[in-house]
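Hi C.,

You asked whether I'd gotten around to modeling the 556-residue construct. I have! Everything is below, sequence then structure, no commentary in between.
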Amino acid sequence: RRVHGGLVTIRMSMESESKSALALFAASVAAIGALTYLSRHDRARREAELKSTEDRIAIKRKATIQFNTQPFDEFQLKRSYPLEHISHVTTELVTPLVSPLLGDGSYRSLFGGDGFLLPANFVPFDEYALANNVFHESAGDAELLSTRGYLRAGPRINLFFKPSDVRAAIVTCGGLCPGLNVVIREIVMTLYYNYGVKQIFGVPYGYRGFYDFDWRQLIPSEIAHIHLLGGTILGSSRGGFDLDKIINSLVLKGINHVYVVGGDGTHRGIWALHQEIRRRGLKISVIGVPKTIDNDISIIDKSFGFDTAVEEAQRAIQSANVESRGALNGIGLVKLMGRTSGYIAMHSALSSRDVNLCLIPEAPFEMKGDSGVLEFIRRRLQTRGHCVIVVAEGAGESIVDADLQNRGTDASGNAILADVGRYLKGEIENYGKAHKMDITLKFLDPTYMIRTVPANASDRLYCSILAQNAVHGAFAGFTGFTVGCVNGRHVYIPIEHIASQKPNRVDVTSRMWQRLLASTGQPAFLSKDAAEKLRLAKIELEQSQMAAGPEVASDA
């Protein structure tokens, strides 16, 4: 058999059992001796290889330190539109540290605590990705010069924070979303194993957890499998943002890395934290990880949890389809998430291919009249015998000929929407009775089932990359940024860009929405008079916005 690269062969040809036993014993002794020799030889060879590897890494680190002794602000390009620069935790002249990730490309050394990334694997401080990568030749340089450029995300060869000095805090805010536990896990693992940070704390129940609850220390062995769970092990909540209490708590506990996972409201809080920390001159890096299951955060390609939500919604739509086909004049009505944007409803309907009607907040519609939704459903039942409907929870705001009353606001200031699903159910059933049509309608609301499931494979990978890049950016000394994917490139985005932008909404003139209309066969659901009124109202709104000037971003 082969042992540690050596070959030990045992051959026996004995005449009696006693001789066989004696020969076997002798052969075993010989094999043990050979094993011992080979093991010592192999250990010596490995130690020599390791010493050689350490020497090579030390030489590279020395060369890197000599080459990169400029202050951090000299690594970045001078401010010139359209490049979007990221704030640094200090404006002082400092000599950067060398990343512990720097190595010779040998992944075996990872288990020995050595770095494993080659210099070429690190991202330069002056590498940017364009926000718009589609240009028209006829426009010349105008489009290129007007697009934004965001700093590429990833590990930097030079660090600002010394790993042994880092004390990190992680908090999740807002509603639940698939992938939260993946982000928590990967931040901890990257801090602990890649940078050697041991003091990592979880802040419970959102912003109020900074000052109202005891924190828990996060240890890799205890959170190793949380990526398989839905929700967040830290708990979450809306509201509770108290600027002074939060910063005083950070100072008291010696925290210098703060990782905040949340949506646009949470990012307005991060922006306020960042500004106050800079005003006080504190060396604390504040990083955001954008989270919204609705996929309505602007600038980024998509938010984590969205793919999982679309995939999980297929179960409800399939059930609605089965119910609708199993009854005379059967209707399956599914309400999905989407307060101000209909991305989940649109993508879920397109993925299903069984949806006959999709209603979203961005596309106004009438319920009554020859051009209305109710008449469309009646005709559909007459010709095909069944109908599958998907409606976004915020679509009630876009009904032209009805006024659904909201039910106040939540702790984050968001409107508590009227239940458009139950409203549609009642209107459809009443319309059927008025036309003497026996309708069987099944209403499914899988909202909380969808947002509490574990992230799927696609979202797990996406969450892992976002979390890793958040840690890399913090160690480089960047602050006041959020991580995201823009045109397929992972970048660092200034927090104020996220905090000040309107929610991302479905463009009803886009090819994606046209694909939806072609799939369902639904019309515009607007009479000529209603369409003209909406057109004039839109013009009036645009004129008033131009007269008022650019919007001013809210602090928190």
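If it helps when you're writing up: The two ends are 69 Å apart (CA to CA).

Thanks,
B.
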